[in-house]
Design goal:
Blueprint lengths: L1 H19 L17 E12 L2 E12 L2 E8 L4 E10 L2 E7 L2 E2 L4 H8 L9 H7 L8 E10 L2 E11 L4 E11 L1
Antiparallel strand pairs: 1-2, 1-9, 2-3, 3-4, 4-5, 5-6, 7-8, 8-9
Organism: hydrothermal vent metagenome
Subunit structure: Monomer.
InterPro entries: LolA/LolB/LppX, OM_lipoprot_LolB
């Protein structure tokens, strides 16, 4: 009887092993040489922080050095609009819901939500494939053709120090 179970188990293991050797498709990207001066991106995603999950949608518009980010959903308990300028990869003149933010965006995020995401790094992660913040691990899980470039479609950001995981799914990117 034990021989029968051993054979059955061996066949099952062999079957499972043969299934795991299926060919995997390599994800390819066609990152840009520089961040576009003008773009709009729409995405949705989730944030996992302290065993809590929050879903969100966002619309990010950038023209020259000015940007406007609108977050929709429970993350901001309604809508949250962030505007400002980016000069030399630094955020300046930041406003949240048309109120000038005194202090840094990092301080605001930590006080309001308990975690921080460097806004200035996101365009580099998305368009250039470059990680400028050592605290974040960026995983590109799938790609899609946006404006004739194979760019990341699904990105997972993990910060082990803050114990946060952000999953973002790019829906549309316009140049």
């Amino acid at each position: 009887m034990q021989v029968f179970y051993f054979l059955k188990f061996s066949l099952l293991c062999f079957f499972l092993f043969s299934c795991s050797t299926l060919e995997t498709k390599k994800i390819s990207f066609d990152f840009l040489k520089k961040i576009p001066n003008k773009y709009q991106l729409q995405a949705r995603g989730s944030v996992e922080f302290n065993d809590d999950y929050i879903n969100f949608s966002l619309n990010w518009i950038k023209e020259k050095n000015q940007f406007k980010i609108t977050l929709y959903g429970p993350l901001s308990l309604g809508n949250l609009e962030i505007t400002g300028f980016i000069f030399n990869n630094k955020i300046a003149n930041l406003k949240i819901d048309n109120k000038k933010l005194f202090g840094s965006f990092k301080t605001f995020m930590l006080a309001k939500y308990g975690w921080y995401l460097p806004l200035e790094s996101i365009p580099s992660w998305l368009f250039l494939g470059k990680i400028k913040d050592d605290n974040w691990q960026v995983n590109y899980l799938s790609s899609k053709l946006f404006a004739n470039h194979q760019l990341p479609k699904k990105i997972v950001l993990i910060n082990s120090k803050q114990k946060i995981k952000i999953t973002a799914l790019m829906k549309k990117i316009y140049f």
